[in-house]
Amino acid sequence: MEKINIICVDDQREVLDAVVRDLQPLEQWFNIEECESADECLSLMEELDEEGSSIGLVISDHVMPGRSGVDMLTEIASDSRYRFTRKILLTGLASHQDTIDAINDAGVDRYFEKTWNPDELIAACKSLLTQFVLDSGMDYQTMLGALDVQVLYQSGRV
Predict the structure, then answer these.
(1) Edge-to-edge strands, sheet with 86-91
(2) pLDDT at residue 109 is higher than 60
(3) Label partner for 148 (CA 20 to 30 A): which of 78, 85, 122, 123?
(4) Which residues contact 58 (CB under 8 A, 6 or more apart)?
(5) What is the pTM of this model?
(6) Which of 8-12, 87-91, 139-143 has the highest mean pLDDT?
């Protein structure tokens, strides 16, 4: 079975390393990719899509050189290839308007301020990835250890 991809995006290497470290419990079931810019993330998504790989979740910082995280997530939200991809905005510098734009334009599923609680981040990832798997019509049976059982119960799948 092919692993679903989680893409983490942050221009600060130490923050990116912290996010990836916090997601290590999910590595058994999901492929975790790292990008240091919005453009790098969009290029990687294009490459993964061409390979037929699934992108279940994008976790992005907001304030980055070039294109912001909200702009990138808005572009992802408008691309039908990624209609089931879930999105988390992880930032410490977003304004109130940035947060509104992230929700309204980018369809952000969750918002975390830096510094985040690793257990809450993992729980959110599991919930969102479970929704991705169900919406995509994938066989969730082989990933039960990584999925949110409550979301499965609510969907009537368990």
Answers:
(1) 30-35, 4-9, 55-60, 86-91, 110-113
(2) yes
(3) 78
(4) 6, 7, 9, 41, 45, 73, 76, 85, 86, 87, 88
(5) 0.93
(6) 8-12
